[in-house]
Amino acid sequence: MGEEDGRREFEAKITPVVIVSCIMAASGGLMFGYDVGISGGVTSMDDFLKKFFPVVYHRKNSNDLDSNYCKYDNQSLQLFTSSLYLAGLIATFFASYTTRKLGRRPTMMFAGGFFLIGVALNAAAQDLAMLIVGRILLGCGVGFANQAVPLFLSEIAPTRIRGALNILFQLNVTIGILFANLVNYGTNKIQGGWGWRLSLGLAGIPALMLTIGSLLITETPNSLIERGRLEEGKAVLRRIRGTNNVDPEYEEILEASVKAKEVQHPFRNLLKRRNRPPLVIAILLQIFQQFTGINAIMFYAPVLFNTLGFKNDASLYSAVITGGINVMATIVSIYSVDKVGRRALLLEAGVQMFLAQIVIAIILGVKVSDHSSDLGTSYAILVVVMVCTFVSAFAWSWGPLGWLIPSETFPLETRSAGQSVTVCVNLLFTFVIAQAFLSMLCHLKFGIFIFFSAWVFVMSVFVLFFLPETKNIPIEEMSYRVWYKHWFWKRFINDEEEQQQLEEQDKLPKM
Fold first, then answer.
1. At 301, is the pLDDT very low, low, confident or very high (cuts 50, 70, 90)?
2. Which parts of the sequence belong to the Major facilitator superfamily (MFS) profile domain (predicted)?
3. Is residue 491 part of a domain?
């Protein structure tokens, strides 16, 4: 066990079992990403709209519109997208129980099962009710996966690469979005009116990957020890760390699990003063993440480009480009998050996203009116470039770090409950944005990008003053290595035992 700048680092190799386990678990991100990407493309397809949303189909192909910005303003159409996130919001509370009592692996199995059933219903849908029920089951899968996967990744990864491995989840989200955009581009050309069924049905591939993967991976030692399976937990710890010298880390997890067992009501315990820093930050990160406007763009990219005057193929093609940029930028985050740190990525991206949205708002304000949306080639290219600039900044910052930071900052006794709150708040505001975006686009017009850019400014100020750095800090040492030393949050950490633990750690000889 080494120590640098007062921070301990446990002995650990990057073992094949860790890499394989993380890749398998991160496939849960594929499910989430595919669905985020697929809905926007499907809702821009004429065959899909004709069958389920004939009012929108007529409006899209009519010239009798009050405004170009209002082509897709329909509550039922928005419900198709947003119902998944409302269901996920509710499901995450059940997922918190299974994650804590049964483990991370079973929760991921449940996620895959819900998703497979939902995919079958969506692909075979004959009416809107069947379509919505399928989306609700997909939402249950998303709720369970988003609860278990980030926890699994944070707990199984060695400290020094925890950020990079955790971002595998977000990388798979972006790959899922790109895959969905490519599928939509291809299925839109299928004759016979059934291309949308193939788009929705192919979501079964990542769901199957997660289900099979959850059968093959190992449970985390933190979860096993927390549930009293001490010897098994220690054996797993040896296997995933590739060394027999795991006693220091084992003792720390064991100590955390003893504290966890003393907590009978983890959700009530979350409200205690000493748990306020990670709780407040987790909640605000999720709200800020959604109010960047990213999901408005990723859900409705083809619809948005179509609204701006791009032809149907061009709008889907533009969505593919933004999806590809999303993947590449997330890879940048994997390489940089454990080197430059969380704060630096968030702050740089804040500036980049703010400027990109302001430029988009200016272009749309000048070139797109209620009855004219001819951007011209040069301005159309510039809009796509600015959207890609925005997406790339989000993909190496607020996208992955919005999930990473909460998953690594809660103590073990409230980690599952904290992750539930994180997922719940994320899905609640995802639902709000998904349900409201097309109506907001209709009423705010180009001002919607000014609205989101104002939020980007606010959240960047928050990061600058209130978000501590968490890179390279062992997961069970966050409270007294991060919160106790922060200028603002230290006032909430007044537990004598934690202060004593900090003092004892500071007395350890540096190596």
1. low
2. 21-471
3. yes
**Residue 3 bridge partners (DSSP):** 8
- Which residue range forms the structural domain that includes residue 322? 14-506
Asked if residue 6 belongs to a domain, the reply is no
The secondary structure of residue 63, as a DSSP letter, is S
Q: Tokens 């493309």, residue?
A: 41
**Separation CA 489–CA 277 (nearest Å):** 6
Among the residue ranges 82-96, 227-241, 342-356, 493-507, the one predicted with the least confidence is 493-507
Stated pTM of the model: 0.74
CB contact burial 125-149 (16+ within 10 A = b; e otherwise): beeeeebbbbbbbbbbbbbbbbbbb
**pLDDT over 70 at 488, yes or no:** yes
Three-point CA angle 402, 453, 40, nearest 5° = 70
Token pair recorded at residue 372:
């004219």
The CATH number assigned to the domain holding 391 equals: 1.20.1250.20
* pLDDT value of residue 510: 47
Burial of 230 (0-12, 13-18, 19+ CB in 10 A): middle
Contact 121, 435 (CB under 8 A): no
* Tens-digit pLDDT profile for residues 413-453: 788 788 888 888 988 898 888 788 778 878 888 888 899 99
Q: For position 321, what pLDDT does the model report?
A: 82
Buried b (16+ CB within 10 A) or exposed e, 316-337: bbbbbbbbbbbbebbeebbebb
Four-CA torsion 270, 273, 274, 278, nearest 10 degrees: 60
Q: Is 246 among the domain residues?
A: yes
Instruction: List C-alpha distances in Å: 417 to 147, 280, 492.
Output: 9, 14, 19
Residue 7 pairs with which residues in a beta bridge? Answer: 4
Other beta carbons within 10 angstroms of residue 2's beta carbon come to: 10
Domain count, the chain: 1
Determine how many CB atoms are found less than 10 A away from the CB of residue 218: 20
Domain membership of residue 279 (yes or no) is: yes
* Dist CA 450 CA 445 (whole Å): 10
Q: Is residue 496 very low, low, confident or very high in pLDDT (cuts 50, 70, 90)?
A: very low
For the chain, the farthest-separated pair of C-alpha atoms sits apart, in whole angstroms, at 77
